[in-house]
Amino acid sequence: MNTATMTAPAKPPGLLRGIDWMPLALLPLICGIAYYFIGSGSTWFTLSIAGLAMGMIIFIIASGLTLIFGLMDVFNFGHGIFIALGAFVAMSVLGQLTSWTEADNLALNLAALGIAAVAAMLAAAVAGLVFERLLIRRVYGQHLKQILITMGGMVVGEELIKMFWGPQQMPMPLPAALSGTVEFGEAAVEKYRLLALAVGVAVFLVLILLLNRTKIGLLVRAGVQDREMVESLGYRIKRLFIGVFMAGSALAGLGGVMWGLYQQGVTPQMGAQVNVIIFMVIIIGGLGSTSGSFLGAILMGLMANYVGFLAPTIPLLPDVSIGLAPFSNIFLMVGILLWRPQGLFSSSK
Amino acid sequence: MIAFLSNDPPRGRPLTILLLLIVLVLAFTPFAFPGAKTLGVAAKIMYFIVLVASYDLLLGYTGIVSFAHTMFFGIGAYGVAIGCVHYEGSWAGIGWGVLGAMALSAVLSLLIGLFSLRVRAIFFSMITLAVAFSFQTLASQMSTLTGGDDGLNFSVPEVLTPGYQLFDAQIFGVSITGRVLTYYLVLFCALLMFLKMLRIVNSPFGRVLQAIRENMFRAEAIGYNTVVYRTLANVFAALFATLAGALMALWQHNTGPETSLSFQIMVDILLIVVIGGMGTLYGAVCGAAIFILAQSYLEDLMAHAADAAQGIPLLAQLFSPDRWLLWLGVLFILSVYFLPTGIVGKLRARAERE
Question: Closest approach of chain B CAs to the CA of A96, in angstroms?
Fold first, then answer.
């Protein structure tokens, strides 16, 4: 762009400028209510860390999908397949590196995990490229077909995973130095959750910086707001699409590794299960909003852990009572949509 | 005859012949192909026709993608099952079960519709997916009522049991057992429901739905409250799916999460709608007949193919009967691309060219 036509900004706008603070207030609200009901500080702390860690993993997966929605306007119901693929690839890689993972040496353990994560992300990115070229490319702009096609791709992908790795659940043990807990005063926190927390925050920061401080990020954000305008300024938006789709798939692969280690096992169906959760996160956060999905994922992780611990049940019939824990997600989503029908942070048109 | 079909005949000779053939075969299966398996396959085709046609009200006629359709199917099946268990297999049990299930489905679909059709269309698909998964969890949690993962086995009125004989003598070499009577009950109900749905889509109400599918903004501009119409379509579709579930329970005498609530069935429904042809109820008939036949007999065929390809490692895996879903998925994707109007659309296009 020509500098003569525009006055150069004195300094780039701050990252914190223009933030909508209202949704953020939900976080202390939910934590506070949970603290009141739980009553014990150390238990509350353990649960909060667990919730945050779960939220981070969900966020890693959802961040890619929300960008795909926002930028490409593609309704991708096949995102789960990259989660499962990433987890299975990482499991195979870790299976080869048992001498590294079983050694009680944090550096070696982390190196093994790093290699597995990179392999998973590469595999998921390549799978994403194939998925985009083979399936989605032909149905840009046709939402109904996108839903059907990606759903079909999900079914086929899941079957292919079953073909290579078998249909049964497989164990995915944590490396030696990462299993077990550390004590914070009276509260015991699993070490892996701290790692998940760190990775999640790192991914969030990298994404935010990438989106707000680089040319590519600028284009992606511009594309989310107005695709045609970016195109008419001479940028090949289709290339951006492929890039974002591959990056989103790679993030899903990374999230799959984290999720598999969190559950300490992988199944071919895990993609479909996680899919449901990330859809709710994206709805809560607002389509296309990275910060929204970050907040939504944290809220969802916290809710799941608090409600799971408190385990409220309601009697439905004299001899039938149901636990509310599996439905905390739905209640959260319904509540937030009643408040803000477009999600917490709605960035798209 | 045309009025009987709500002035919406199949159009075109090939399609008419195919439909007549399907209806005739279904009508005479107990006499022409007696046997437990064929009878079961034919009955499954019939309740799937109703189920898929009800889904087409949403997907094909209104342009809404819902993933909660199996939930309503399951509610119908569990309604009859729970009713029969409580009333020890009397007609009252079936009646109350169906009524209760329909009431529950109506309330749930109304809530889902009012809540999620107000927000963006994509949210509706996602929300229904989430609700369907939660409902599965709920059903397995309430195991004292639903039998958990094992499901419920129940007895039905004596007239419908295999041991019952209507006449002492055989008719056309077939004794009229309670099984045959159940078959014709299912046939009669399915036919009635199909004609009712045909009536709905060809009514002024159905026309508005199609207008919404074509251009929602415009339909709204003309003055139709699209949220109300879409919600009503959702409720109607849910009610017919519930009835289809009740028919299945009546036929199978048991209900479990695997046969009525699983996501597998949702995939089947999607496939049948797309293969048969979206936006025409006759598509449900053609699609269900072909799909269920293939599903019931192709698995045997694939076992043979896997045997033949024994030595070749990857090929044998590909043709293993367990990979049945893989081929369905591929078929599904191909038909969305290359057969967007389905079998019915192809046959009609051919008839118009001649």
Answer: 23
